[in-house]
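Sanity check

After download, print the first record. It should look like this:
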Amino acid sequence: MMPPYCAVPICTASHNDQDYESFTLVRFRAIEPPTGREGHPENMLWFCKDHVRYTVGKTDMSAVVAMVHIRAAIRRGAPNLWPLTSMP
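Expected structure tokens:
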């Protein structure tokens, strides 16, 4: 499992400057069934306490699709709007 770094690209929150309790590991819909490999699961991402609210209502999406929606909502500077009415 990789250490916590917020999955939002513009965020600089990491486990180096905050405690682990400041992060939430979010599980999105898996694209492929688990293969028994070691390492960080492809469908799980860390989010800091400021950005975890953008994941609400998106865990049924793959991590890639959810991140498109999350980044669009953050760029708009809007609260977590669902459903997303326009793509960036």
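If your output differs, re-run the checksum step. Summary of this record's structure: Confidence is low (pLDDT under 50) at residues 83-88.
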